[in-house]
Design a protein that fits this description.
CATH class of the largest domain: Mainly Alpha
CATH superfamily of the largest domain: Tetratricopeptide repeat domain
Mean pLDDT: 88
Structural class: mainly alpha
Radius of gyration: 18 Å
Strand content: under 5%
Low-confidence stretches: 1-30
CATH architecture of the largest domain: Alpha Horseshoe
CATH topology of the largest domain: Serine Threonine Protein Phosphatase 5, Tetratricopeptide repeat
Helix content: 55-70%
Strand order of the largest sheet: 1-2
Number of helices: 13
Shape: globular
Number of domains: 2
């Protein structure tokens, strides 16, 4: 039987039943706080795949890409036909704010689910998962990277228009907007992303993705005061994510808040 549970429920379940104590390469301990408890995405995964998937999702929002990929592969092992685990691993190969993408590695991750897009789409268990899978098929499809980025953004905009209450759709759409600023920071694009993300902060003020992408949106001396609210929360939401600790310093440095930095 498959279950629909929230990130908080999965985190509490995992904390009591699946605690790790090792510190080997690639091993993640549940004492590490990366924002898993703030993940609310509902999935069709088997119960044993929920915790690693939601942990991977939190790490993905934190740009902790290698750790996220490890978690998503754990979810694949627990539920081999769970399409979102492959979506997640593929997403770890796209670094939009750094204008980096490893399309071949992402395609290899997707190929574990099925050899062709149609084969993979047939494994989606509901329309929402099909939409997420369709998004990465576009992101790593044919054409130049810039063209694929814009096509992916168009797909995310459609998903957002259909369900603006989904916090992860909002977060990834905001990130896709930021990623469309090719060739440098274009303030109008970054402010557009901020405008889309801000309502998510009102409803999910500790969501790592919302906090992280708003900090990037406001990461300049003029707009840094707007990012102070997010910087005050982000390090608390994901204290064991190195990038989260790094990003808050951008805002406090711009504000000359040396103590907070």
């Amino acid at each position: 039987m498959r279950h629909l549970i929230t990130g908080a429920a999965a985190f509490m379940l995992a904390s009591t039943a699946l605690a790790h104590t090792g510190h080997g390469d690639g091993e993640v301990t549940l004492s590490e706080r990366v924002g898993t408890e703030y993940m609310v995405m509902q999935t069709s995964a088997d119960q044993t795949a929920q915790e690693p998937f939601l942990r991977g999702l939190a790490l993905l929002h934190n740009f902790e890409y290698d750790r996220a990929a490890t978690a998503f592969r754990e979810a694949q092992d627990a539920d081999p036909d769970f399409v979102m685990a492959y979506w997640g691993e593929a997403m770890t190969h796209n670094h939009p704010l750094w204008e980096q993408q490893d399309r071949e590695a992402a395609r290899e991750a997707l190929a574990k689910l099925g050899s062709a897009p149609a084969d993979r789409a047939a494994k989606a268990r509901n329309p929402r998962e099909a939409e997420w899978l369709g998004a990465v098929e576009i992101l790593y499809g044919e054409g130049t990277k810039e063209a694929r980025d814009l096509a992916y953004l168009g797909h995310m905009r459609s998903m957002f228009a259909a369900d603006p209450d989904d916090i992860d759709i909002r977060a990834f759409t905001g990130l896709a907007i930021l990623g469309s600023s090719h060739g440098g920071r274009q303030i109008p694009i970054y402010m557009e992303a901020a405008g889309l993300l801000e309502p998510g902060f009102m409803t999910n003020e500790m969501h790592p993705g919302i906090l992280h992408y708003l900090i990037h949106s406001y990461d300049d001396p003029v707009h840094a005061p707007l990012g102070k609210r997010m910087a005050e929360r982000y390090a608390v939401a994901a204290p064991d994510a190195g990038h989260a600790q790094h990003m808050v310093s951008h805002i406090f440095y711009a504000l000359a808040d040396w103590k907070a930095t």
